[in-house]
């Protein structure tokens, strides 16, 4: 186990509670922790836990730090700048796990049959030029944030199934990709539904397929922390997972199961709007927040079969070491694991 500053963590990247539920956490005595997040509906578990006092009840004084991509969050965890985060598995995250710096401790966003999920997209300029199906993207530019990102993984899995080759084009940030898709500088991309659907309706691009059709039961994002926290701060880590899981339960009840009816959904939209689409008035933000509703794993259960598939893909692409095992990446002692 090692301690890293942010510069060392970047260098190491190389460019690239029980089965029945969470155990009762040890109260962390108002311990201050920093949580990494993206301003996506899919990060609502953390937002709800904070706003409804579940982190505070678990003894945690939570402060958010916001990012624009997955890999910088992995660096921040490894360097100790943040304590916990929810994000996709990336080559950088795996490489840092291999160095003993971080551990995946739970599951978050997952593709579930019957719930609208992530979409594959074709830019409108490309569509108008005759590229109307995913198979037509053969040899075309496909946007990713970085090589070794979840976008890279999703694009590659689709390309393999369709028997095509893609020209992966790293653009670093989601905002830059949206601009490139609108202007026709890239041909294809994949993204969560709250971004995909409203901009497709506005004519920015065309939806060409569902990620779940190519990657069933995909564990899209995971909960992770430093290896030090996982090993030495068990009470604090259990407290974080307990608070987060209560937030997930409330989110699912309001947005998926709709146990509170329209009033419950409206209340949840108001809460999420504090963090997502904050530059829009509530009435314009609400449809996109609803469009982004996807399943978050109950009790942070982790689909280890999906994580293994992702790890194997990164290895097959030469993006991470061939000898890295699932145990190197995952500490499975905190939550229920499925798909093993």
TrEMBL record:
Domain SsuA/THI5-like: residue ranges: 41-252
SUPFAM superfamilies on file: Periplasmic binding protein-like II
InterPro entries according to UniProt: SsuA/THI5, TAT_signal
Keyword line: Signal
UniProt signal peptide: 1-23
PROSITE patterns reported in the protein's UniProt record: TAT
Record family assignment: Belongs to the bacterial solute-binding protein SsuA/TauA family.
UniProt name for this protein: ABC transporter substrate-binding protein
Native source species: Thalassovita aquimarina
């Amino acid at each position: 186990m090692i301690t890293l500053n942010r510069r060392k963590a970047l260098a190491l990247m190389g460019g690239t509670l029980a089965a029945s539920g969470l155990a009762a956490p040890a109260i962390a005595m108002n311990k201050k922790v920093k949580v990494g997040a993206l301003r996506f509906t899919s990060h609502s578990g953390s937002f709800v836990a904070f706003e409804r006092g579940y982190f505070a009840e678990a003894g945690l004084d939570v402060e958010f730090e916001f990012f624009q991509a997955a890999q910088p969050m992995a660096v921040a965890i490894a360097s100790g700048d943040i304590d916990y985060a929810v994000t996709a598995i990336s080559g950088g995250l795996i490489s840092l796990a291999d160095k003993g710096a971080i551990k995946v401790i739970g599951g978050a966003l997952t593709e579930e049959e019957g719930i609208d999920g992530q979409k594959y997209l074709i830019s409108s300029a490309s569509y108008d030029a005759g590229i109307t199906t995913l198979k037509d993207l053969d040899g075309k530019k496909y946007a990713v944030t970085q090589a070794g990102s979840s976008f890279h993984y999703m694009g590659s899995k689709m390309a393999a199934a369709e028997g095509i080759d893609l020209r992966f084009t790293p653009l670093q940030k989601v905002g830059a990709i949206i601009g490139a898709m609108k202007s026709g500088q890239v041909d294809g991309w994949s993204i969560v539904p709250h971004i995909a659907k409203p901009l497709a309706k506005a004519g920015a691009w065309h939806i060409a397929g569902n990620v779940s059709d190519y990657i069933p039961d995909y564990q899209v994002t995971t909960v992770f922390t430093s290896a030090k926290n996982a090993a030495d701060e068990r009470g604090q880590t259990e407290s974080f997972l307990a608070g987060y899981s209560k937030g997930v339960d409330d989110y699912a009840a309001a947005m998926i199961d709709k146990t509170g009816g329209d009033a419950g959904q409206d209340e949840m939209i108001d809460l999420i709007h504090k963090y997502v689409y904050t530059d829009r008035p509530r009435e314009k933000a609400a449809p996109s927040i609803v469009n982004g509703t996807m399943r978050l794993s109950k009790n942070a259960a982790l689909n280890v079969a999906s994580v293994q598939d992702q790890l194997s893909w990164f290895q097959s692409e030469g993006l991470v070491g061939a000898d890295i095992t699932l145990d190197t990446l995952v500490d499975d002692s905190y939550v229920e694991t499925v798909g093993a």
